[in-house]
Design goal:
homodimer, 298 residues, Rossmann fold, 6-phosphogluconate dehydrogenase C-terminal fold, 12% strand
Amino acid sequence: MFEQLGLIGCGLMGGSLALALKQAGLVRRVVGYSKSPSTTERARELGVIDVAAPSALLAAAGADLVLLAVPVAATEATLKSIKHLVTRDMLVMDVGSTKNDVVQAARTALGSQIGSFVPAHPVTGREVAGVEFADAQLYRGCQVVLTPTERTLGAQLRKAEQLWQALGCKVRQMSPETHDQAFAAVSHLPHLLAFAFMQSICGQAEGDTFLALAGPGFRDFTRIAAGEPKMWRDILLANREHVLEQSQHFQQALHTFEQAMRTGDAQALEDMLTLASGARAHWRMGADRTLGTTTPLL
Amino acid sequence: MFEQLGLIGCGLMGGSLALALKQAGLVRRVVGYSKSPSTTERARELGVIDVAAPSALLAAAGADLVLLAVPVAATEATLKSIKHLVTRDMLVMDVGSTKNDVVQAARTALGSQIGSFVPAHPVTGREVAGVEFADAQLYRGCQVVLTPTERTLGAQLRKAEQLWQALGCKVRQMSPETHDQAFAAVSHLPHLLAFAFMQSICGQAEGDTFLALAGPGFRDFTRIAAGEPKMWRDILLANREHVLEQSQHFQQALHTFEQAMRTGDAQALEDMLTLASGARAHWRMGADRTLGTTTPLL
């Protein structure tokens, strides 16, 4: 149980977490700050935060839990602005989708205070942004990856684990490097492909005609292409080495498919489709085949 | 109202349409045939068809409506096998996802009887196959594209339109060429990309670890990669020229994104993301911006 949550960034992710923590009785009071005063004010009106703070520093003042829910590129500046309030008893977390850059930013910004910071990535989200969409259920049942550094305090790491578990999340730990490589593969690259696909349709003269005919397959495949441009700009730049590497793997696979189509090699094509289709049909969200368990999370 | 539906192919698409037509009171009796006798028998047990026929010819015998719901590559052989029963009063339709090859197959197979054949593509489907998943609601509200030839009889075309409209579908007409180009863009290419993406993940040593971490974005982006391998083999081969052309457009867009990432051009990246995200956010299934209307179908 935390006495006071200092929420820095009252958008979809931050707002939803504030609501979830309050609903679960894990925080008593939420002091919130967003870069845009109108967002902070709106968060207060919606009951997402209890008190509006005029700065990140004032949101963190008096808090025993500080949550950064800002674009990953803003992590360093935000942590710097609250640094001299960070104590060993405080738990500071982020919710960013990349972790190498966040850990690096935390090292630079927090220096010797870095032990209180537990880098976190809850694997959830929506294709809409803004506090209006804040939803206490957003985190329910999702996976949360923690990427502690060698200097993270054990007590803060345990508090972080307990917090997410109390929200019904499945918590994993891994290195920032492993995290960024895996999420380049299963999240950042799919987003890049969906964005590029939308651009390629819109760039054609017949684009509107095509779009008018699109059905449910298109709808689901492109849902993530509606993601927030600034957020995805930051993620794609922060994790670009892994994403570009995954994109190379993907393009090789695509070329193999194209080659089978060009040469009319029906058997090769069917074999590849069978492998891909089988893999997808057997996949279940949150089921970890690498650990030999199949516990669906949702 | 039709007296007897001859259903050739009792899988998901055919079985669902038989159920929908009976439920809507549009056909009195369904005689069904599938290549696999156990499928035909299962369809009868499930009440999807009333009578099991031992051949396509016997399924068509006595029918005033014949529906082909077979893999597109089987269209020519199937039509040949029923050709001498096809009359001017009979409506023959398919439900295939490609239309140039289906029209060509119909020309070859039906010859002078081609007037009774109305090529149809209902834009719906699921990532599962088999009569067990047959669902009378599968076609509700979907778009149906008809691609009549210059020899299609006006009376049969009107019957086809009325049939689909009576099921709550929105009917459009276009040339097979326009159809195949548009669906290469908004359906066949996304499937190809989703299949290739799954293959690229599974081909990596860390593939299982990656998959265990995947979340809701991955789930939706790859849903169509679970599609039936044989069906998609046929579609990708039948429409390969358009699909390969669309794949080139896509790869150009992807390279533009990659270039912005490599050079760290945040502004260019954000501009492209903004365009893609805005286009997807404004898209509504079944809303035709080219006609200035925005009637959502689902």
